[in-house]
Amino acid sequence: MSAPARPRRQTAPRRPHQRAPQRAPIKASSAATVLLVGVLVVMPTQFSSKSNFLLVLGLINGLTVMSLVVVTGLSGQPSLAQASFMGIGGFFGHFLAEKHGWGFWAPIPLLVLLGLAVALIISIPAVRVRGLYLLIVTWSFGLVADRVVFNWQWLASTDQGGSNQGVTATLSRPEVFGISLVDDRRWAFFIIAVSVLAMLLVRNLARSDAGFALRLQRDSEEAAYSVGLNVRSLRVGAFMVGGVLATLAGYLFLAHQSAVTRTDYSQFMSLNFMLMLILGGVESFVGALVAGVGFAFAPEILNALNLSGSWQFFFLGLAGIALLAVTEGGYGTVISRRTGPLLRALSGTDAAPAPRRPGTRPPATVKSRTSSSSTPDRSRRTQLRAASLVHLWESANGGAAEASPRQRRIYGSVRGHGVEWGSLQTPPQPTAVHSEAEDPNSAGASRPRRVYPTRRSHRSSSSNGARRQPR
Amino acid sequence: MIKFLQLLTGGMAIGAAYGLMAMGLVMVYRATRTVNFAHGMMAVIGAFAYTILNVDHGVNAALAFGAVFVLGTGLGLLTYAVVGYPLARAAPLSRTIATILWMLVLQSFLALVLTRTQRIVPPVFSSERINVGDLAIGRQQVGVVVIAAMLAAGLFVFFRSTMGTGARAVAENREAARIAGIPIVRIDMLSWAYAGMVAVVGGALIGPFQIADLTSLNLLLVRVLAAALVGGLVSVPLSLAGGLLIGVSEQLLLGYVESLPELRELLPFIVVMGVLVIRELGLFSTRAKLGAA
Questions:
Q1: Which of B75, B104, B81, B102 is nearest to B203 (CA)?
Q2: Taking the CB of residue B16, how many other CB atoms lie within 10 A of it?
Q3: Which positions 118-137 of B are in contact with A (Cβ < 8 Å)?
Q4: Do A137 and B276 form a contact (C-beta atoms < 8 A)?
Q5: Which of B194, B160, B184 is nearest to B20 (CA)?
Q6: Of B26, B87, B104, which to mutate for an interface test with A (greatest number of A Cβ within 10 Å)?
Q7: Total-model pTM
C-alpha cells in the first residue's frame, strides 16, 4: 500500500476501522508457485528415468486439469470432454506432424485453431444456462470423439486395417535449439518449463479483467449482466481457452508417450480429470499440477503396497465426494480460501432471475471505465469496483446480506423473492465502495468506505429500503 | 417393409429400455436438480448381477430378475446415502459432480470384484421368438416394453397419490415444498430408490441386446441422457418418447445405413445438440422449466 506518488493518501490517512484490501491469498498462492517450481526443478535431477516419465505424465495431466480450472473453476462450467480435446490434439497433431511431415512445431498453430473451433461449436448452445447442459453436451461429445473421430483411418500414417483399438498415432520428441529431447531428463525439464509457463499465463488470465469478469458472471450472473458483461461470450471464451489448453496438452502427451490409441483419451480419462480438479481445488492452478503429478504416481504407491490400481479411484473418488460434502459445494474452502466463491457460483445456478424493482437501474458498466486506464493496479480496481457494483445491485434487490439468519432460513431460496438467498449462505466479503466525492480513477484503494457486511439481525423488510446503499 | 417392421420392433424394445432408464434420471432431477451420472454404472451392475445370479449360481430367471429389483432399490438408496444426503444442501452442480465421482467409485469397485469384465447376459424372457405373420418378435423385446410400461404406469399412479403430489410439488419448487411441510427427505429417498431400480433393471434387460462390458454398458448413459433431455430432464412421458425415438432411429440407422456404423454413436450427440438448439430458438414448450436447471 505504499504509494508515495499519490499525495492524496498521505493527506487522508486511513481510518483505523478501515481494512486494507485483502492481498494475502495472492501472496500465499505466489509462495506455493515458487515452492512448486523449486521442487519441480530439483525433481528431474534426482529421479530415475521411470520417475521422470511419470513426472512428465503427471504434469501433462496437470495441464489438462488446468484447462478445467479455467472452464470449471473460473467460469463455473463443468466439462467432461477435456480428454477428447487432448485426443484431438494427439490425433490431428499426428496427422499433421508425422503423416504430412510438418515436424513438431509447425502443427501447433493449426491445433490451436482446431481446439478453438471445436470448443466454440460445442459450447455455443450449451452455455446460456449454466452448468448441467454443458456437462451433458461434453459427455456426449466425448462419446463421438472416442468412437468416431479417433477411429478415422485417414488420420493414421500407416494402414492399420480396422484394428479394434482404432488409430494409433505416433510422434517423436522435438529438438529445442538443436538439443534433442529424447532423453527423459531433458524432456522433463522441457515439460516443466512448458507447464510453469502455461500456469503463469493462465494465472495471468485469471487475474486480468477478463478473469475477474469470468468470476463475476460465475458468482452472480445477474450482476454480470447488470454491469454490462456479455456473459455468454465470456463462458464460450473460457471454454475455448480450456479447449486449446487441453488440445496442446494432448499433443504433448502424444510426444511423451510416442504412440497412443484412442483408449489413452477415453472418456474415463475425462472423469479422472474431474476428480483431479476436485482434489486439487477448483480454482487453484498449483493444485492442478500437484493433483496431476499425484495421480501419475498413485499407481506406483499402490503397487508398493501390493494393492490393485482400482483402489486409487475407489478411495480418491470417495475422498472427492467427502470433500464436496464437507465443504457443502464450496469445495476448496478446505484447500484454499480463494476457491470459496465457488460456493456461491455453484449454488446460484438455479436462481430464477430476480425481478428488478421499479426504480432500480443497473449500475454503469465496468468495462467502459477501466479501458482507458493502464496503471498496474487496474485489474485490482476493476475488481473492487465490480464487486461493489455486485453488492449494490444485490442490496437494491432485496439485500441478501441484510436478511437475518432466521429470515434466510424461512425464506430459503423461494423464487420470486428477490435474490435467491440460498445462494448466499456465506456473507459477502467486505467490499469497498468509492465515495462520490472522490475521483473514481484515483480513489481505488485510498479511501474505501465499507458498505458490507451488514450483519445486523432482525431487519424488517421495510427498513431494507431505508438502508439502501448510497448512490 | 418386413425389414422396416423388424427394425422398428427391435428399436422400440431398446428404446423402451432407454426410456425406462431415463425415467430414473428424470425422477432424481425433478426432486434434487441433480443429473445422476452414475446411472450407467448402475445399469452395468444390474446386467452383471443378473448374469452372475442366473448363470454362475443357477438361480432361475424370474427369481434372479426379482433380486435385481431389490438390488437396484438398495443401490439407489446407497447412492442417496453417499451422494444425495450428505450433499443435500450443496449446489446442484456439486451434487452432479459428486455423482460423477460416485460413478468412478462404482466402476473401480466392479473392477475389483469382478473376475470377468465381459459377459454374455442371458435374456430374462427366453430367447424364443413370436411370429406375427412374417414378423418375428423376440420375447425379450416384448418383455422389455411390458416392464417399461408397467414401471411408467407405476409412476403415473404414484404421482396421483399423496406422496406423489408431494413429489410434484418438490419438482416445482423444492424450498416452498419444504416450508409447506412436505417430507422432502422421504421424497428424495423414493426418487433415488426408483432411479436405482430402473437403472439396474434396465441394465439387466438391455444386456442381451449388446456387448456387456464395463465401458459399453456405462456409455448407455449417453443415450439415456439424450432421451431424458428430450423431456427437458423433467417430463416423464417425453423422456419415454425420447428413449423410443433414440432406440428406433438407432436401429433404423444400423439397418439401412450399414456403411456408416458411426452414425449410431453420433446419434445421442445430434439429439442433445438438436434439443439445445431448438430450445435456443424458443420452440420448446418446457423452456421455462429448462431454464431452472
A1: B75
A2: 28
A3: none
A4: yes
A5: B194
A6: B104
A7: 0.76
In a mutational test of the A interface, the residue from B78, B93, B217, B233 whose CB has the highest number of chain A CBs within 10 Å is: B93
AA identity, residue A50: K
Within 8 A by CB and 6+ apart from B276, the residues are A125, A126, A133, A137, B229
- Which residue matches cell numbers 463421438? A144
Helix (H, G, I), strand (E, B) or coil at A240: helix
Please give the residue of chain B at the shortest CA–CA distance from A347: B91
Please determine, for residue A45, whether its predicted confidence score (pLDDT) is greater than 60: yes
> Scanning the structure block, which residue is given the C-alpha cell 416392464?
B147
Q: From the list A310, A324, A350, which residue is nearest B112 (CB)?
A: A310
Cα distance from N-terminal residue to C-terminal residue, chain B: 42
Task: Tell me the Cα Rg of chain B.
Answer: 19
Q: How far, in Å, CA of B28 to CA of B135, rounded?
A: 38
Cell numbers found for residue B22? 431415463
Q: In chain A, what residues touch B226 (CB-CB under 8 Å)? A: 136, 140
pLDDT value, residue A453: 41
d(CA A126, CA B253) in angstroms, rounded, equals 26
Contact flag B103-A271 (C-beta cutoff 8 Å): yes
Record: contact A271-B104, CB cut-off 8 A: yes
Q: Is B283 exposed, middle or buried (0-12, 13-18, 19+ CB in 10 A)?
A: exposed
d(CA A206, CA A242) in angstroms, rounded, equals: 12
Summarize pLDDT for B42-88 with one digit per residue, the tens: 999 999 999 898 888 888 888 888 999 999 999 999 999 998 888 88
Q: Which residue ranges of chain B lie beneath pLDDT 50?
A: 284-293
Q: Residue A161 — pLDDT band, cuts 50, 70, 90?
A: low
Q: Among candidates A297, A47, A299, which has minimal Cα distance to A187?
A: A47
Per DSSP, the three-state class of A167 is coil
Q: What is the pLDDT of residues A299-344, one digit of tens each?
A: 888 888 877 777 888 888 888 888 877 764 433 333 333 333 443 3
CB A170 within 8 A of CB A157: yes
* Residues A105/A174, Cβ–Cβ less than 8 Å: yes
Return the amino acid letter for A355.
P
Calculate the dihedral angle through the C-alpha atoms of A141, A143, A147, A152, rounding to the nearest 10 degrees: 10
B chain contacts of residue A322, beta-carbon cutoff 8 Å: 86
**How far is Cα A414 from Cα A394, in angstroms, rounded to an integer?**
16
Helix (H, G, I), strand (E, B) or coil at B70: helix
CA-wise closest residue to B37 among B88, B95, B89: B95
Which residues in chain B (259-288) have CB-CB distances under 8 A to chain A?
262, 265-266, 268-269, 272-273, 276-277, 279-280
Contact criterion met (CB below 8 Å) for B272 and B279: no
Cβ atoms within 10 Å of A5's Cβ, excluding its own? 6
pLDDT score for A402: 42
Give Cα A8 to chain centroid, integer Å.
37
* C-alpha cell, B100: 460423477
How many alpha carbons lie under 13 Å from residue B37 in its C-beta half-sphere? Answer: 29
Task: Give the span between the Cα atoms of A212 and A373, in whole angstroms.
Answer: 16
Q: Which residue of A324, A334, A421 is the best one to mutate when testing the B interface, meaning the one whose CB has the most B CBs within 10 A?
A: A324
Tell the residue number behind the cell numbers 432408464, with chain if given: B21
Chain A residues close to B112, C-beta within 8 Å? 308, 310-311, 314
Q: Which of A137, A328, A422 sits opposite B272 (nearest CB)?
A: A137
Put simply, the chain B residues between 210 and 249 with a CB less than 8 A from any chain A CB are 215, 219, 221-222, 225-226, 229, 233
The answer to whether B97 faces chain A, any CB pair under 8 Å, is yes
From the list B35, B97, B101, which residue is nearest A136 (CB)?
Answer: B35
Cβ pair A312:B98 closer than 8 A: no
Cell of B158: 404414484
